[in-house]
């Protein structure tokens, strides 16, 4: 099939490459001309503007928008909507808030356009591993675009087959699903990222306790100097907590078990926050996912106002005057 | 009654003063001779050593130990146990782990001595407000010492009477209780402090959100510049969240609404930790009390190893390179 | 002054009563005619419809809307906006989401109307204790309505004066503040409720640990049978955790220390949820306030899907088959 | 090598089998004679008592104790200690609290015996997958027993090699490590389980939010009916959150996506609790691991006393009377 791709960053560029590896063709656009030239050199058809991109695509057109930020995505889709024709499809493969998909699909539908939201996991590894795709939108369009999704997905691979899946959707075993109507794709991706935060924090806390087992605040007979790189490695085989995140952790610790090149300042993206919002809307307790998000918030401040207020109260009732200097980092 | 007091710091000294205000007498000892001299000048009988203190007390003796740290308290009580006689009583009014009381009471009982554990709340305000006393140990001894406890407790004051207390222990309305056998006093005090952590953190988080309502990361139409000192003050009257801790908070914010003299480094004492240990032993979920403790742990580090590990994983799967510098503090 | 009141439930009715006690007059409306008749019998002017209410008020009119649910409040305010005239003022004293205030104030402004949002704390006790008022909106209107707010607020009372407040807004010490522009009043009330959840949960967890200290899962020598009613009472005097919520707790436990008439099913209202949303928008970690909300979510389910999933995984890796029946409640 | 095995349950029996598959020999004992007979039929040497087991082993003996509960393990080791001779070794492969290892190793050392603590992960899958082993104790003994550990461990398998491990301990890549002195093995296993709880809870919460996306409390246009079995399956390939626990989850959901055979009552074992104790001893914030533990505590109660107390306070300040019946479970 032929796909138009808008946005040729780390994700968009590799998606085009993976599509072309399966025999699909692509017309590409990016506001950095170099990115366009680069991919054109690999076999894609370059374009100089959204108008040019649309003009070079055969109807019914499929334009995949893969842009990093919400407002640029919104603006681009609005602009594309003005250029496309009845029956064309826009795919948003970025990290869009699912309620925006619901709204946007309705707006585009009234203009005769189709809209598909695709949550795309795989990061910098997707070109090689394939992309795990969570797709929302009209069934007929999702089925029409199946060759694209099948090409991007990782495929069955050598993973053991899940028993009991007879009669269930075979696409899930290839690494892509049609999750539901508009917004469903990004909703599932949102939860994926929410879980990701929780998993990461669970490993991080466990290793933090391991590392601080050497802390001088402990009695000497209860201290251990663990080689955390070896611990991460040993857990990769035969343990209950084997995972891809653990593999990555083992790699990072093998390089530098003190992680001394990292500041400890940790960003969060919208999905983690939207996950908590969804939990609250549904009245589902989500302690772990929320705590994982808050740990990132806290990591980005030297001290919170809340902490100063604790000190102020302690002084108020107990005359405690808190130390003015933070401790050094753990062990 | 006559009481021996060992430890004349902020707490011990004022307990002696409050006892003397009610006509009780005290023989006092501290390893700082100045503290002894000072209280002697206020009417107490000074002593030069534990031996001297014991010699100056009439049998059956009552010695109140009011020392800040667990190991000194233990050593002092062991030493006293060697000096006292059958029928004498040791009171530990410090912040002792209740399981130590259980053990210690057994040891002293076998030597013919009585042991009373008293959780003492009131801090620097106790001399004026009175001390809230949570007492553990043998009933007969607790009753014999009642005049002491009654003198130290705040008394009924002008607080509204709790309806429905007819037939219940009137001591609770005076501000002291016999909570149960040995350890019960410190157990109740431990929970008091655990709750205290939770209450403090609840206020602190609320004010943090208020203060960061002016944050530039918010859309301009959704920002507020609250006067947090006025907010604390207004909540003191008629709101659901009035409390003594709020009164203290209002005072601190009236002095400096930015709390700029506080570092944000917050200590914790044993009771907060033991409370969590008790919760876990009993399989009681105690999310709020635990989160309050962890906020203090976190406040004492620049960055945790856990946070660095999050950054390492993010780099591993997404190629994210985290900023090296922490943000400034909130708004 | 003259005030129109729409909504004569527990809150609206008592607000009218407290206003009339201070010599203000009220025109009242409720869709239950009995409520109107009742207050008319106490001196208010009854009305039969919003039109009638508006007709009976002198310009510039002040209409206080005090309704329980967000959608009825919205509809009522829209309807009132069509009846009122240039220069009139609508007060929303209910529990409105502050972003709705921001929007609504803008809409009404364009129609020549003023809008004031008032967060009102005090519950069923407000008639007697007074209402703690957190007010948002235009300064000139807030000042014009000052007699109303002053009459409703608790006043200074016999609470100790907060040192250091010289030169600060004296209204805060009377129990009301002008918190900022539209939305500010309900924002501060929202945080008040968020803190309220946290405080309540802190006490609740502490008492849960106390009560389960008698649990048979503990070794016999480490069990205590605490009288939790006495513990609540003793903490009311001289402790660090004295508060109005503790007073209420002491009353509830004095009536029935087993709280056997309560199901343990706990509702939450919008403010607790919006507080967390605000925290997330501001990137402020709010562990305790969030945990308090989630405890309520959890209380309303027999079992979560999450818990079943834990059992499923445990069976998967360890062959564990979980018990089918829940334990009885704690000790 | 020759190993004595005490305890032929799910774990002990399979460990013997896996050892025999690699050419090692075993003398086995269990207080259920059938278990002994069974394994004898597979090639092991049966024994009728601990004395008999010891008599049948060649010096220096190696006895692996693999028993489910702490007190039986302790008693068995004490009994063995009286039967063994200078230079013999006891291995505790169960889930022992690491501080017991520290104490026990010291006691046995004074009697001329060696003690090795082995944290063993693998559950019912270990016979096939191999056991991930975390070993504590004297280096010379750990090295002497290397053939046993190497046989039990999963081996390198077809997992990608972690870059940067050149020069690091090659045993970690085989699935076993010598983690440190006595207690270190069980400490690392404890943290493994603590992390396990956190990972499980992260998945569980995410799927709970997915499932409740169909809840009737949501506006109809924001509801989704996800096929959670397909979601679990799709995440197995190419996503960031692939793991063995996810594989198990996919299997459970493929069998029954409602998990209707599970009660939702979830046990916890000592390791999860000890992990939190270690975190607190080290002053390491461990929000996620703790929240995961508390979710299990909560799952085992119909209602907590804490929840009833919340209702009591709500009634106290707001006149709220809580519903008496819990809601049904989420959507």
Secondary-structure map with pairings?
Four copies of one chain form a homotetramer.
Chain A: E1 2-6, H1 10-21, E2 25-29, H2 33-40, E3 45-46, H3 50-56, E4 62-65, H4 70-83, E5 89-92, H5 98-109, E6 114-121, H6 126-129, E7 132-136, H7 139-144, H8 146-152, H9 171-174, E8 176-180, H10 184-211, H11 228-235, H12 244-255, H13 270-282, H14 287-299, H15 305-318
Parallel strand pairs in A: 1-2, 1-4, 2-3, 4-5, 5-6, 7-8
Antiparallel strand pairs in A: 6-7
Helix pairs in contact in A: 10-13, 10-14, 11-12
Which stretches of chain A are poorly predicted, pLDDT < 50 over at least 5 residues? 324-331
Name given to the CATH architecture of the largest domain in chain A: 3-Layer(aba) Sandwich
Mean pLDDT of chain A: 94
* Gap from first CA to last CA of chain A: 56 Å
Which class of secondary structure composition applies to the elements of chain A?
Answer: alpha/beta
CATH class of the largest domain in chain A: Alpha Beta
Count of discrete alpha- or pi-helical segments spanning 4 or more residues of chain A: 15
CATH fold call of the largest domain in chain A: Rossmann fold
Total number of distinct structural domains of chain A: 2
Number of strands of chain A: 8
Beta fraction of chain A: 5-15%
Oligomer: homotetramer
Series of H and E elements of chain A:
EHEHEHEHEHEHEHHHEHHHHHH
Q: Find the biggest chain interface.
A: A-D, 107 and 107 residues
Biggest sheet strand order of chain A reads 3-2-1-4-5-6-7-8
Q: Could you say which overall geometry of chain A the principal axes of the C-alpha atoms support?
A: globular
Largest sheet of chain A, in brief, is:
8 strands, mixed
Fraction of residues in H or I helices of chain A: 40-55%
């Amino acid at each position: 099939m032929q796909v138009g791709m808008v946005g040729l960053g780390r994700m968009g560029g590799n998606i085009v490459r993976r599509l072309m590896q399966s025999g699909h063709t692509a017309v590409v656009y990016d506001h950095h001309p170099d990115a366009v030239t680069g991919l054109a050199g690999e076999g894609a058809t370059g374009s100089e503007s959204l108008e040019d991109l649309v003009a070079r695509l055969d109807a019914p057109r499929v334009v995949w928008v893969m842009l990093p930020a919400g407002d640029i995505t919104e603006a681009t889709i609005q602009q594309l909507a003005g250029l496309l024709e009845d029956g064309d499809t826009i795919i948003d493969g970025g990290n869009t808030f699912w309620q925006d998909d619901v709204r946007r699909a309705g707006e585009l539908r009234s203009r005769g356009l189709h809209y598909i939201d695709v949550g795309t996991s795989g990061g910098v590894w997707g070109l090689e591993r394939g992309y795990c795709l969570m797709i929302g939108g009209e069934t007929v369009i999702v089925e029409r675009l199946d060759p694209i999704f099948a090409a991007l997905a990782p495929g069955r691979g050598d993973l053991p087959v899940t028993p009991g899946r007879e009669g269930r959707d075979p696409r899930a075993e290839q690494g892509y699903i049609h999750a539901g109507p508009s917004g469903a794709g990004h909703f599932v991706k949102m939860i994926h990222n929410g879980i990701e935060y929780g998993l990461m924090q669970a490993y991080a806390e466990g290793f933090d306790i391991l590392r601080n087992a050497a802390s001088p605040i402990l009695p000497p007979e209860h201290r251990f100097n663990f080689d955390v790189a070896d611990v991460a490695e040993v857990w990769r085989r035969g343990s209950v907590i084997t995972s891809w995140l653990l593999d990555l952790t083992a790699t990072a610790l093998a390089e530098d078990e003190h992680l001394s090149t990292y500041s400890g300042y940790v960003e969060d993206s919208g999905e983690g926050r939207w996950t908590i919002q969804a939990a609250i809307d549904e009245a589902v307790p989500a302690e772990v996912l929320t705590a994982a998000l808050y740990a990132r918030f806290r990591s980005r401040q030297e001290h919170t106002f809340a902490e100063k207020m604790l000190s102020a109260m302690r002084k108020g009732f107990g005359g405690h005057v808190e130390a003015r200097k933070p401790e050094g980092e753990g062990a």
